[in-house]
């Protein structure tokens, strides 16, 4: 197939209400994501195994796919996968699709329920595609099963813990900081290149800051020449990958809202990994790595 199967399995189906998902935070439950490091890692590993299995498909053995779904999926996720794979299963062409979880971060973990932001990489022959997906899984009878799947997720964040010196407070402070950084860095306006530059500059720390300042003229010119205005989409999804003292790595996804010079607006899925450091009461980015 010349067209990336990722577009068939994930992106094309992302606008369907059948795969919109219902991954709301658990009211009153303590979010132990990253804080209980061993348990979080074990949950993420289990979800990785399940996701890689159910997002892979061999048209020569469709029964194996059905068995895999039955073993690794529960609740609404069964209907979501049926919708996602509808085009693939109806294709008259032979298909061998393999999937890997390239990156993942726990958004919420309560012991028997985990919600994560994952970047799935799908392969079919020489074709490779990526997509950001929110995966929720529940644990029952000692086994983790996927219960909700949201492609290009737009979801509310768990209620944050106050920045009170606890590890949970530090985690949620880092997440809030990452959202603020992303809002500054990825909100640009070609009609105000100097203001756009200043917002980015204020969100950075060394070594990224020095590099950005050293290329100020070209950065301002690039914003001016882009002819676009970009803002974050609503309810971006973020999870902490690692947290050590006043430093964190955050996986961040948003549907960027981009308006071109003609006024045409488009929504562009965008995933990035941010290295952030606490500076006083604020967080700044020391590295920004788009996931491409």
Order of helices and strands: HHEHHHEEEEHEHHHEEEEE
Q: Number of domains in the coordinates? A: 2
Q: Can you tell me the CATH topology of the largest domain? A: Nuclear Transport Factor 2, Chain: A
Count of individual helical segments: 9
The CATH superfamily label of the largest domain reads: VirB8 protein
Mean pLDDT: 91
What does this structure look like?
With 292 residues, this protein is α+β, with helices and mostly antiparallel strands. The chain folds into two domains: 5-151, VirB8 protein (Nuclear Transport Factor 2, Chain: A, Roll); 167-290, Nuclear Transport Factor 2, Chain: A (Roll), CATH 3.10.450. Helix content is 33%, strand content 35%. The chain contains nine helices and eleven strands. The protein has helices at 5-11, 37-54, 62-72, 77-84, 86-90, 167-185, 193-202, 208-214, 216-226; strands at 57-58, 96-109, 113-124, 127-140, 143-151, 188-189, 229-231, 237-244, 247-259, 265-279, 282-290. Strands 6, 7, 8, 9, 10 and 11 form a six-stranded antiparallel sheet that branches. Strands 1-2-3-4-5 form a five-stranded antiparallel sheet, with helices on both faces. Strand 8 and strand 9 form a beta hairpin. Helix 2 packs antiparallel against helix 3 (62-72) and helix 7 (193-202) crosses helix 9 (216-226). The longest helix is centred in the middle third of the chain and has 19 residues, at 167-185. It is globular, with a radius of gyration of 20 Å. Mean pLDDT is 91; it is low at 1-5 and 11-20.
